[in-house]
């Protein structure tokens, strides 16, 4: 009788010491919340990412991709199966009359915006206020201050079941904080992205970033959070609706709806994911009862709930 190899044995055979077991995920999330990954794999380059994902697809192993760890709430029980930590962070600038930048999917988007500024290249200033990675931004059409990925992306290299493919911005089917990837319409991983830029000066671009950063500090709370909790409904703002419902400052355990901005939930140390989840449900129920609006999550719930 042939005994099939266990998934963990397959991973150890192919990836060796890159395989880590029972690793707490809280340190890898912006909210500093979440239980352990059953198996954690780290990809340091797009080539490693391709190798890992192809291996998992081939053996039909489910996995969760984690970049900067923003816009996700990892459950207290953690994540069964494999979590891939994306640390592919290469960046290449293309100068000339129509400058652009190619960034690997593990690049922190705000850092990329600042690197553009240091070279006097404009266009991504809005991204200096965006947490998370380029891969996550392309996946969810991240945006801030009137800019978004859909407006600046030229194309992105994806890994699909057919291999490495280049998708133009039009192929992503972008909408408000969504794409064909986020809607699950295609099965693919973001490897890198090309963004259009404009020639400017270091001073002008830096000033604009500083203005955005200053505005963010006065309107968004400090501390560990997931970023914006809910999508803004058409013609309105989630934070405004939450404030009108009298929920700012509400706490469950060590989780708090920020007194500064109702669409941000703060971790006041050792917060449980279940407490954040309870606040989410309280907000959705109260806003629906008082304003008749159903708030849709912008973050994703990850793991066993």
Structure notes:
The chain is an alpha+beta fold. The chain folds into three domains: 7-86, Uridine Diphospho-n-acetylenolpyruvylglucosamine Reductase, domain 2; 91-218, Uridine Diphospho-n-acetylenolpyruvylglucosamine Reductase, domain 3 (2-Layer Sandwich); 222-298, Uridine Diphospho-n-acetylenolpyruvylglucosamine Reductase, domain 1 (Alpha-Beta Complex). Helices cover 29% and strands 26% of the residues. The chain has helices at residues 7-15, 46-58, 109-118, 134-140, 149-152, 202-219, 238-244, 273-291; strands at residues 20-24, 36-43, 63-66, 72-74, 79-86, 91-94, 100-104, 121-122, 143-144, 147-148, 153-160, 163-168, 188-196, 198-199, 251-252, 255-257, 265-267, 300-302. α3 packs antiparallel against α6 (202-219). The protein is globular and about 55 Å long.
In short:
By secondary structure, the chain is α+β, with helices and mostly antiparallel strands. It is built from eight helices and 18 strands. The strands form six sheets. Strands 6-7-13-11-12 form a five-stranded antiparallel beta sheet.
Mean pLDDT: 94
Could you state the oligomeric state of the chains shown? Answer: single chain
Percent helix range:
25-40%
N-to-C SSE string, H for helix and E for strand:
HEEHEEEEEHEHEEHEEEEHHEEEHE
User: Major sheet: size, sense and barrel closure?
Assistant: 5 strands, antiparallel
Strand arrangement, major sheet: 6-7-13-11-12
Number of strands: 18
> How many H/I helices?
8
CATH class of the largest domain: Alpha Beta
Q: Would you identify the CATH architecture of the largest domain?
A: 2-Layer Sandwich
Indicate how many domains the architecture comprises: 3
Spatial extent as radius of gyration: 20 Å
Q: Give the overall shape.
A: globular
The secondary structure category is alpha+beta
Terminal Cα span: 37 Å
* CATH topology heading of the largest domain: Uridine Diphospho-n-acetylenolpyruvylglucosamine Reductase, domain 3
State which percent range the strand residues make up.
25-35%
List unreliable stretches of 5+ residues: none
């Amino acid at each position: 009788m042939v005994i099939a190899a266990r998934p963990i044995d397959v991973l150890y055979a192919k990836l060796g010491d890159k395989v880590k077991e029972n690793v707490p995920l809280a340190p890898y999330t912006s909210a500093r919340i979440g239980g352990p990954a059953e198996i954690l794999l780290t990809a340091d380059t797009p080539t490693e990412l391709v190798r890992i994902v192809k291996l998992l697809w081939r053996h039909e192993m489910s996995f969760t991709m984690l970049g900067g760890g923003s816009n996700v709430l990892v459950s207290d029980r953690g994540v069964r199966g494999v979590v891939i930590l994306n640390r592919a962070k290469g960046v290449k600038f293309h100068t000339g009359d129509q400058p652009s930048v190619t960034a690997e999917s593990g690049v922190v988007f705000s850092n990329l915006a600042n690197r553009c500024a240091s070279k006097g290249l404009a266009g991504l200033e809005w991204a200096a206020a965006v947490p998370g990675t380029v891969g996550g931004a392309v996946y969810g059409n991240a945006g801030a201050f009137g800019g978004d990925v859909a407006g600046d992306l030229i194309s992105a290299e994806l890994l699909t079941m057919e291999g490495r493919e280049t998708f133009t911005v039009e192929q992503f089917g972008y909408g408000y904080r969504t794409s064909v990837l986020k809607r699950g319409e295609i099965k693919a991983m973001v490897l890198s992205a090309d963004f259009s830029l404009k020639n400017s000066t270091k001073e002008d671009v830096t000033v604009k970033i500083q203005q955005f950063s200053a505005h963010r500090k006065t309107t968004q709370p400090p501390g560990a959070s997931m970023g914006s909790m809910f999508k803004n409904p058409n013609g309105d703002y989630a934070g405004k609706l939450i404030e009108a419902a009298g929920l700012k400052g509400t706490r469950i355990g060590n989780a708090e709806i920020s007194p500064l901005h109702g669409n941000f939930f703060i971790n006041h140390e050792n917060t449980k994911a279940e407490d954040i989840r309870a606040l989410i449900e309280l907000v959705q129920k109260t806003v629906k009862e008082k304003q008749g609006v159903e708030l849709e999550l912008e973050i994703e719930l990850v793991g066993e709930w």
